[in-house]
Amino acid sequence: MAKFTSHQAQAAFVRQLEEWGHELGFQQLGVSNVDLSDAESQLWNWIDQQHHGEMTWMSSHGLKRSRPDLLEPNTRSIISVRMDYLPPQSADAEMVLNHPELGYISRYALGRDYHKVLKKRLQRLANKIQHEIGEFGYRVFVDSAPVLEKPIAVKAGLGWVGKHSNILNRDAGSWFFLGEIYTDLELPETGSVQEHCGSCTACLDVCPTQAIVAPYDVDARRCISYLTIELKGAIPIEFRKAMGNRIYGCDDCQLICPWNRFAQETVENDYQVRNGLDSEQLLVLFSWSEAEFLEKMQGSPIRRIQFDRWQRNIAIALGNAPYHPNIVKALESQQPNASEMVVEHINWAIRQHVEKLD
After folding, report:
1. Which of 99, 120, 179, 357 has a CB 3.0–4.6 Å from the CB of 142, allowing a cystine?
2. Which residues are catalytic?
3. Helix/strand/coil for 182
């Protein structure tokens, strides 16, 4: 294991890491230790309340998620980074939400899958470290293993946890991805920052399904992002109308947040809008065959929800759109080939249009 001869050498190396991070396209880099005891108790309280829904992986790894050295032995420090993702020249999010014939897709998913982009950059950073100091123990993570990335980012000084549970940064809002390198290097923490949400409750008030049940506490079972992405089966009827035209994720709590006045647009080509997904017509998206879906979503994070959930989500949005005979016709045309689960949502959508005519 590589060692540093003094605290000054450690601090100088962290400054070098920050410089390399900027060169690799990260907007910020910080370092934390591995003590996540506070986050551990919060996590298990959240799980005890069943707020994780069907995301069983949140509990199935035991303490590995909150004790980094159990997941990756000998981990002593964690390098945490953030990368802006808000694509420039994309359709205005509020405009799309106010046009129910369009499909709203969370801004993070409009371009290339962030897992691949960040992981490659973090690997390049690890290679730079190895070239500089020699062999060292490490493992790269991007939302792909039992890692408490948000508490880690907070300890590293990348921001604070907002009341919507996203990380907020005074200079960048919340439109950014996180990634980590677990390492056996002994490095000084870069230090946490003060919280600046104050008495604001805008995110709680705006949530379409009241999923933010208390400040800093999101009940995933009510969250549109969970319902459209993580939930594999039928979406509870009580939430369908509130979903509006949100067909993959939900950004309402970020769109309303005052700190996102300072959000920075991404400079990464990989996060630019693909296939017009920032403001496409629902009827166009619903007309795709499974082969078209797989082809168009190649390299996109959306691909992982698979075709059934894609059709399910769009069927709900079409049911929420103003009546038009073409919508009913499109819904009926998909019935013969759709799965039983999707057909149930199509039938619900058709009933909404029948009611609109009454």
Report:
1. 179
2. 143
3. strand
